[in-house]
Amino acid sequence: MSPASQLPPLAELEASAAVVRLPLTVKFRGVLEREALLVQGPAGWGEFAPFLEYDDVESSRWLASAIEAAWEGFPAPVREAVPVNGTVPAVGAERVPEILAKYGAVSAVKVKVAERGQTLADDLARVAAVREALPHADVRVDANAAWTVDEAVEALTALAPFGLEYAEQPTAGIEGLAEVRSRLRASGLRVPIAADESVRKAEDPLRVARAGAADLIIVKAAPLGGVRRALEIVREAGLPAVVSSALDTSVGLAAGVALAAALPELPHACGLGTGALFAYDVARSPLVPRGGVLPVAPVAAGEVVPDPALLAEHAAPGDRRTWWLERLRRCYAVLAG
Ligand SMILES: O=C(O)CCC(=O)c1ccccc1C(=O)O
Ligand SMILES: [Mg+2]
């Protein structure tokens, strides 16, 4: 996180702040719209968009990431394109073809599972529909920590025959992940376990790696406090990493692309295709996948910027702008210590 002495003045953040509300074409995390506060600094634009229920301490890391993007810019890329997965929210199986069509050709698909109010049968049907549409794709599932250990073992045992690349955060907590992982191995099922919430919401993002509780880690630029901090975490974790979005606008996705582009190794497709779920974005040329990849060049060239007309068109209502500016001030105070 940026040391307090390196923080730009709050007035500069406030002066450039644009608050948008963007409609999605499909419900994600239970919502049909995404709000974000965008700031402009000498290095470009940054996105501050912690989910509405997050507290100020957790949200302040997202602000550090926005400040890095706008005042410091991104480290040099080592690749020209970032392969991405399509993301299938917890929709009914009959909607899978329509959702997949949004991404175009992708070599990997992430399927949300364990949605509250749904059953294992719903998950099996959704994953089956993805497998039917894309027989050769890498299919990974994400339970967002919603299963118990027993439920996770049962569900992943049932899902494994579809061929799973890995299971993301099947259950909450590092001990739970370790137990799911070892119980699957003991039964001869090699489903790699990826840690997401156990990295991005943990007090110590490295503990899951030290505990040997996961085979890979999911890293997101904003929740981890920026691209450089995320790179450091991957280096120290010593595990393969998958860069994923936080349902960002193209400005936030650019930070994810910069992170994925700067990682020494990128063995899996990244979860950065979510721009395709937005009905509208802030950039004239949004970061949506083409041919299964996102290009690094426009990010490195600082071309992924909001269009003033789109910012105006999608400006959040006045009371929401006030709410975001107040949140910005509180999180700035956290960073300033
Ligand atoms: O990884 C992806 O495919 C898309 C991003 C995603 O799933 C996500 C988006 C917003 C908040 C949490 C998550 C998550 O990975 O759990
Ligand atoms: Mg996840």
TrEMBL record:
It catalyses: (1R,6R)-6-hydroxy-2-succinyl-cyclohexa-2,4-diene-1-carboxylate = 2-succinylbenzoate + H2O. The keyword Metal-binding applies. GO terms for biological process: menaquinone biosynthetic process. Transmembrane segments: none annotated. It comes from the Bacteria. InterPro entries: Enolase-like_C_sf, Enolase_C-like, Mandelate_racemase_C, OSB_synthase_MenC1. Mg(2+) binds at residues 142, 168, 196. It is an enzyme of class 4 (lyase). The active site is at residues 112, 220. Pathway: Quinol/quinone metabolism; 1,4-dihydroxy-2-naphthoate biosynthesis; 1,4-dihydroxy-2-naphthoate from chorismate: step 4/7; Quinol/quinone metabolism; menaquinone biosynthesis. Its cofactor is a divalent metal cation. Residues 93-187 form the Mandelate racemase/muconate lactonizing enzyme C-terminal domain. Its EC number is 4.2.1.113. One of its GO terms (molecular function) is O-succinylbenzoate synthase activity. Keywords: Lyase, Magnesium, Menaquinone biosynthesis, Metal-binding. SMART domains: MR_MLE. Converts 2-succinyl-6-hydroxy-2,4-cyclohexadiene-1-carboxylate (SHCHC) to 2-succinylbenzoate (OSB). Belongs to the mandelate racemase/muconate lactonizing enzyme family. MenC type 1 subfamily. This is o-succinylbenzoate synthase.
